[in-house]
């Protein structure tokens, strides 16, 4: 490792050593090599191009897909004393011209540009006239047409290699299965680039999947253990986002909404509040979140089923970027599967893409219904083996029971067939349980042979059976018949008694108000309670005082609090209680610029709380 890179790591970023493969990646790019980097969210991807940009001659040009992401990263770099800027549509013509002059004059270390702007003739000509240290393509999975964040402009970024073949390129993403990795390399002309693939595991995240019974109540029960925490709640539709946000506000939770149907000004304002304020819960569609740098998001909750494992992984990865404990909670039901299948099959995509998306949805459904370690299944999707028994998911903490579901499955499949494969699970369950509803009477289903043969199971247990039959590929939803269930070819061996099945047992309903993180004790108000629970009383008092100072300082500068200092840095300060600037400079995360800017204020606050 070159001494300039280590010196910058310590002087600018306040760290004494690289993590994982950062050192190899940084040196490879400094030496002029191309790289494809897969590293989980929170793993330190940004340093892999920021430090080479500071070491190499010229300005590092970063292709970034979202305006909010650019602005946050530039604000954070400026706090570190790095000469960073962005070119996007929020700038006035005068400000954009000024930044272009700074680039040409060699007065910038890093410049962030959206792919759409980069591809304009004006920007390409600007790059021709500037000294560029490297090209960094962030969120590189956006190049994949099979991915969850496809951006067609990313496919045109091959121009970087074609027009400037001698400038090194580094493409980075936190989410890419094997086919997506191959497509990134192919579409960006990075087949010969060195690949650096870190573990996809996020050991600090606790994965939990629950079956939807009363989704609103279940969400409130989950959030009871996260009072005062920052978090994200993902919902399927714009209407659902607004409804859930209103319900959370009514329950006394500081919640905001975010979806693409809102005015741009409202979306931007809500995102800013989420980034800058503590304890905000953002209820959003997947339009929100790519590249969110907020490190202290303590939970990501899905109140509807995502479309794929990649999307689920990417979205849950926005929790716990600081490495502290965080929750990934998913609540789903069979209705979610029907809605998503309908969305896919009625979409405008070609048949091949539809087949791929349906397979991905089926894989996610299988993950949800699995009885094995969540981590093993999740990482296995990305080609990474895991032994299981992670100790930090619902299936490991509370191993699910299973039962011989062969007879129940034959009853369910027979009833679907006897009712004409024309109805959803709700009506079929009524028939199985012998419920004489208006609909059952209207269709004469009290007279068929399967009426009442399933009275030994309650509606909740039958819902679980049907979910698992869909997950196992024995039943599928007929979208043309509004989600009616129909048998697949795999149902035949079960009906003929040639195949047996075991089902996951349906757990009892949790008590009203029961928290989802019983063992963590992170509720009760403070956003950092989980991380700070083991601090001594004096250190905790110092930590809280420092957080208040940080919040005030961030508001004065109109920047997110975490760009001042991360919670982990404040914790270290509170624990060590440094007496002078020299001691303070040894705290991880405090580089020369932050020491000069905030050192005296921090020491004064420590003195005031002795």
UniProtKB/TrEMBL annotation:
InterPro entries for the chain: DEAD/DEAH_box_helicase_dom (IPR011545), DNA_helicase_ATP-dep_RecQ (IPR004589), DNA_helicase_ATP-dep_RecQ_bac (IPR006293), Helicase_ATP-bd (IPR014001), Helicase_C-like (IPR001650), HRDC-like_sf (IPR010997), HRDC_dom (IPR002121), HRDC_dom_sf (IPR044876)
The UniProt record lists the keyword Calcium: no
Signal sequence, renumbered to the chain: none
Catalyses which reaction(s): Couples ATP hydrolysis with the unwinding of duplex DNA by translocating in the 3'-5' direction
Cofactor: Mg(2+); Zn(2+)
Transmembrane segments annotated in the record for this chain: none
EC number: 5.6.2.4
Gene Ontology MF terms: 3'-5' DNA helicase activity; ATP binding; DNA binding; four-way junction helicase activity; hydrolase activity; metal ion binding
GO CC annotations, alphabetized: bacterial nucleoid; cytoplasm; replisome
Keywords: ATP-binding, DNA damage, DNA recombination, DNA repair, DNA-binding, Helicase, Hydrolase, Isomerase, Metal-binding, Nucleotide-binding, Zinc
Pfam families xrefs: DEAD (PF00270), Helicase_C (PF00271), HRDC (PF00570), RecQ_Zn_bind (PF16124), RQC (PF09382)
Cytoplasm recorded as keyword: no
A single GO BP: DNA repair
Matching PANTHER family: ATP-DEPENDENT DNA HELICASE Q1, DNA HELICASE RECQ FAMILY MEMBER
Family named by the database record: Belongs to the helicase family. RecQ subfamily.
Name of this chain's protein: DNA helicase RecQ
Organism: Lysobacter enzymogenes
């Amino acid at each position: 490792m070159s001494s300039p890179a280590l010196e910058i790591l310590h002087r600018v970023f306040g760290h004494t050593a690289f993590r994982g493969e950062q050192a190899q990646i940084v040196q490879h790019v400094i030496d002029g090599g191309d790289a494809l980097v897969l590293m989980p969210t929170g793993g330190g991807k940004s340093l892999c191009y920021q430090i080479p940009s500071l070491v190499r001659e010229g300005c590092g040009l970063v292709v970034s897909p979202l305006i909010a992401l650019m602005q946050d990263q530039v604000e954070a770099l400026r706090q570190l004393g790095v000469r960073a800027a962005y070119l996007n549509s929020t700038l006035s013509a005068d400000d954009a011209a000024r930044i272009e002059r700074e680039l040409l004059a060699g007065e910038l270390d890093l410049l962030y540009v959206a792919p759409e702007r980069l591809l304009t003739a004006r920007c390409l000509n600007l790059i021709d006239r500037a000294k560029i240290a490297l090209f960094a393509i962030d969120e590189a999975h956006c190049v994949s047409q099979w991915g969850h964040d496809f951006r067609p402009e990313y496919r045109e970024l091959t121009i970087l290699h074609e027009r400037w073949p001698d400038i090194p390129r580094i493409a980075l993403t936190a989410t890419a299965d094997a086919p997506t990795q191959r497509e990134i390399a192919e579409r960006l002309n990075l087949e010969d680039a060195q690949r650096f693939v870190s573990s996809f595991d996020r050991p600090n995240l606790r994965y939990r999947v629950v079956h939807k019974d009363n989704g609103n109540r279940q969400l409130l029960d989950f959030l009871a253990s996260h009072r005062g925490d920052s978090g994200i709640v993902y919902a399927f539709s714009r209407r659902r986002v607004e409804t859930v946000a209103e319900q959370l506000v009514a329950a006394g939770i500081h919640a905001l909404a975010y979806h693409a149907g809102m005015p741009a000004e409202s979306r931007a304002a809500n995102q800013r509040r989420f980034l800058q304020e503590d304890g905000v819960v953002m209820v959003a569609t997947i339009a929100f979140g790519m590249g969110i740098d907020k490190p202290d998001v303590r939970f990501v909750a899905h109140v509807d089923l995502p479309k794929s494992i990649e999307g689920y992984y990417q979205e849950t990865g926005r929790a716990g970027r600081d490495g502290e404990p965080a929750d990934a909670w998913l609540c789903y039901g069979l209705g979610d599967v029907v809605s998503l299948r309908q969305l896919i099959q009625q979409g405008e995509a070609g048949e091949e893409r539809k087949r791929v998306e349906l397979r991905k949805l089926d894989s996610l459904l299988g993950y949800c219904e699995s009885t094995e370690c969540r981590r093993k299944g999740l990482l296995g999707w990305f080609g990474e083996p895991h032994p299981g028994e992670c100790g930090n998911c619902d299936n490991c903490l509370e191993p699910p029971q299973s039962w011989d579901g062969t007879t129940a499955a034959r009853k369910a499949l027979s009833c679907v067939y006897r009712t004409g494969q024309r109805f959803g699970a709700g009506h079929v369950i009524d028939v199985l349980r012998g419920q004489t509803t208006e609909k059952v009477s209207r269709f004469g289903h009290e007279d068929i042979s399967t009426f009442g043969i399933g009275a030994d199971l309650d509606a909740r247990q039958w819902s679980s059976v049907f979910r698992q039959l869909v997950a196992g590929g024995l039943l599928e939803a007929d979208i043309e018949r509004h989600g009616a269930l129909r048998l697949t070819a795999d149902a035949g061996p079960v009906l003929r008694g040639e195949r047996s099945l075991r089902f996951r047992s349906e757990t009892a309903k949790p008590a009203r108000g029961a928290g989802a993180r019983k063992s963590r004790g992170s509720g009760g108000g403070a956003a950092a309670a989980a991380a700070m629970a083991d601090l001594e009383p004096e250190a905790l008092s110092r930590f809280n005082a420092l957080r208040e100072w940080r919040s005030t300082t961030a508001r004065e500068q109109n920047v997110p609090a975490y760009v001042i200092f991360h919670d982990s840095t404040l914790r270290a300060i509170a624990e060590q209680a440094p007496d002078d600037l020299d001691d303070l400079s040894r705290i991880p995360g405090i580089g020369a610029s932050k020491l000069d800017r905030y050192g005296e204020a921090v020491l004064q606050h420590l003195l005031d709380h002795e």
